[in-house]
Amino acid sequence: MKNINKTKDEYKEIVKNEQPVVEKGRNVLRAFLVGGGICLFGQILWDLYLYLFDLSKQDAGTLATITMIFLGGLLTGLDIYDELGQFAGAGSLVPVTGFANSMVSPALEYKQEGFIMGIGANLFSIAGPVLTYGMVSAFIIGALKNIFGG
Amino acid sequence: MIEIGIFILSFSVGGLICAVCQLILDNTRLTPAHILVGLVILGSILTGLGWYESLIKIAGAGATIPVSNFGYILTKGALDAAQKDGLLGLFKGVLARASAGISASVIIAFFITLIFNPKE
Hints:
The complex is a heterodimer of chains A (150) and B (120).
Chain A: H1 8-18, H2 24-52, H3 57-77, H4 81-88, H5 90-93, H6 96-109, H7 115-122, H8 124-148
Helix pairs in contact in A: 2-3, 3-6, 6-7, 6-8
Chain B: H1 5-27, H2 32-48, H3 51-59, H4 61-64, H5 68-93, H6 99-115
Helix pairs in contact in B: 2-5
């Protein structure tokens, strides 16, 4: 760095060269494999519960989802899931295990701020927006279908 | 006799949803939170069109494990209850089918946070 007075364009060029290369193809493949693997595991649980217990198909699916939520939360507590996230990106974000991770991870981080503003509030830092827009969207779709039939 | 097709389909459909989201993450400025919210809204719209239920029939957990399934259960609950109770049903139904998933998430996440401590 001989000259510290760079123009804006020169600076942009330097930043661009120094940034790590995002290997998009590799990322997509990892997301596909890990995300697919997590869903496959969910499917295996679903079929296992159907086979083991006297449950309706829907209830067995719900139980499989709850198991996945538990596993996602547990692996977050054990500090494994965030490591997986570094590797898999959206592959570990999108499944419901990632939703559990999005609740536990910030709540753990801010645990020392107490039960209310630490754990209580931060459980919902991402789950809050998800549930808010999910519920509003469900209401709007339900209202539209009720008005226009269909 | 175990049906092997559903395992292949759940893997590939679930994987595909994740791969598309990874493409969006890598090529836009959207954050993971945007992705999750977007998926739930997409799941909700597809439920309104009647497509999400078909996707679940085809792909099983490939459709019920991705977060878009929250959009499905929220909307499905609202639609079912609205048929019975009209406007009141909309409010009664939104969380009806989603109750198990949302309650489990909150309760399990709370206890796990209680038990574990953040890494140094």
